[in-house]
Design a protein that fits this description.
This protein has 491 residues and is of the alpha+beta class. Helices cover 32% and strands 19% of the residues. The chain has eleven helices and 18 strands. The strands form three sheets. Strands 1, 4, 5, 6, 7, 8, 9 and 18 form an eight-stranded antiparallel sheet that branches. It is globular and about 70 Å long. The N and C termini lie far apart (94 Å).
Length: 491
């Protein structure tokens, strides 16, 4: 009986120990699970807080990646395995909603974080865009895009994006033309800001300043391309069942690298049409560039840098009453990917107008027009030098520009986001064209003309934040400002 009693006590003690051990173990497991959840949650919050801190940081912009010779980069996709892109999807019925991005909370799929990573941010080299053979944009060309440039200011070090507001307006028009739902302005701007902030290591160093003038010299840029495309699968000719909004970047050099000082030789294209009235020549869609590729290759084989396109209907249907040849009567359009300007001996700075709907409304084109109007007094001395008349008056206009006008030009230059402002030294037909034409301009063969150079310097000053006034103060957007300030523009 004594032994049985002792054994019973021992059994109870063992049972109690087991119960206590299980309880402590359960609490430990629960604690570890909770601690793991809290750690993950803290990690996610840290990513978001770091991102928001970067937006509002006064510690400066992250430096360029070491070991990259940015100044030698070509105009192309460079170092794709070292940058990130943003990708969102929707359907045409739903469009882009506050679920994608809510500007009031700075929340939505665009900025949401899962497992410490942004849902919308993809590594360019490791997470390719999912496309199928029946993807709408591959079969029917329903793709629009924009091109913007981000540069570091040589005076403040800030990362500045040039005139994204105007790019959005063109993007929205293009979306309507291609039956794609346009994103809201807020979503567009936040997407730009986010992809730039997460690729600042790819933004080249700030350009050096000219020791004599203080004007920023040319240099590489971080090019950013927003795209909207039909990414759904189908065979029929109708709107895509899925839409993709993409933002990607690439550090790049100049579009006409190595030719900026020597000037371009342009071929006057008299056979191939880039755009016709009633078409999509004024929409930045992929098809507008596809049609220029074969003529561009042909022009280069003949020793030209690019083509200057005509309104072909004005060439094939000349005015019978005119004494000029059909070619000299023909109206100019633009290059494969750049707008054209003439500086005439009358003092007029002129570019083809947009009223025909066949010319892309370039952001740099508009910027040069506005600068020329705002700073005409500064342009007068260089215009006088260019045309050789001290009392010449500077005028700025958009109108139909004919081939014959080229004979009155003292300077010609082209503009574009990638090109900036590039001089042209000559324009002409090739030996196998139907009608012969050739003109070599007084300025532009070995260096830019006085007006061209002054406008290029003005543009670079504006882009760097060195030149501003009430009309252009919102042209620059600080990438590391708050989302609201970024949308408003101004530095």
């Amino acid at each position: 009986r004594y032994v049985r009693g002792r054994l019973c006590c021992v059994g109870m003690i063992v049972t109690l120990i087991i119960i206590i051990s299980l309880t402590l173990c359960s609490r430990s497991v629960s604690f570890n699970i909770a601690q793991h959840y809290r750690t993950n949650l803290h990690s996610r919050k840290m990513v978001v807080s770091k991102f928001k801190a970067a937006v509002n940081s006064d510690e400066g912009v992250p430096p360029p990646q070491e070991g990259v010779e940015f100044a030698k980069l070509p105009w192309n996709l460079n170092l794709p395995d070292q940058h990130y892109y943003v990708h969102l999807t929707t359907d045409p019925e739903s469009g882009w909603t506050l679920e994608h991005y809510d500007p009031k909370t700075d929340g939505g799929i665009l900025t949401d974080v899962t497992d410490g990573e942004y849902k919308s941010l993809k590594h360019y080299g490791q997470s390719p865009l999912p496309l199928f053979p029946s993807t709408t944009s591959l079969n029917y060309g329903t793709t629009i895009w924009e091109g913007l440039a981000c540069r570091r200011s040589p005076t403040t070090g800030k990362a500045l994006l040039f005139r994204p507001q105007m790019n959005y307006a063109r993007f929205a028009r293009g979306a309507h033309a291609m039956c794609l739902p346009p994103p809201s302005y807020e979503l567009f701007m936040r997407g730009l800001q986010m992809v730039l902030q997460n690729n600042m290591h790819m933004c080249p160093p700030a350009p050096e300043l000219d020791p004599d003038t203080g004007v920023p010299l040319g240099g590489a840029k971080l090019y950013v391309r927003p795209m909207l495309l039909g990414s759904g699968q189908q065979l029929g000719l109708h709107a895509s069942p899925q839409i993709s909004l993409v933002f990607f970047v690439s550090p790049t050099g100049s579009y006409f690298q190595g030719k900026a000082m020597g000037g371009l030789k342009l071929h006057l294209e008299t056979r191939k049409s880039r755009a016709a009235r009633g078409g999509t020549g004024n929409i930045k869609c992929s098809g507008n560039y596809a049609v220029t590729m074969r003529p561009l290759m042909d022009a280069k084989e003949h020793g030209f840098h690019d083509n200057l396109y005509l309104e072909l209907d004005t060439y094939h249907n000349p005015k019978p009453s005119s004494t000029l040849s059909p070619l000299r009567q023909a109206i100019l359009q633009e290059l494969s990917a750049a707008n054209i300007f003439l500086v005439l001996e009358s003092g007029e700075i002129v570019t083809p107008c947009l009223s025909r709907g066949t010319i892309l409304p370039g952001v740099t084109r508009d910027s040069v027009l506005e600068m020329a109007k705002m700073f005409k007094d500064e342009l007068q001395p260089v215009m006088a030098k260019s045309v050789g008349k001290e009392d010449i008056e500077v005028t700025v206009s958009e109108r139909d520009v004919s081939v014959e006008d080229l004979n009155s030009a003292v300077e010609v230059f082209v503009t574009g986001t990638a090109a900036e402002v590039v001089p042209v030294q000559s324009i002409g037909t090739s030996a196998d064209d139907e009608e012969s034409f050739s003109v070599k301009f007084p300025h532009g063969e070995s260096e830019p003309g006085p007006v061209t150079l002054k406008l290029l310097e003005m543009l670079r000053e504006v882009v760097a934040g060195q030149r501003t006034n009430d009309k252009i103060q919102d042209w620059l957007c600080d990438v590391h400002s708050t989302p609201e300030d970024f949308r408003k523009g101004g530095i």
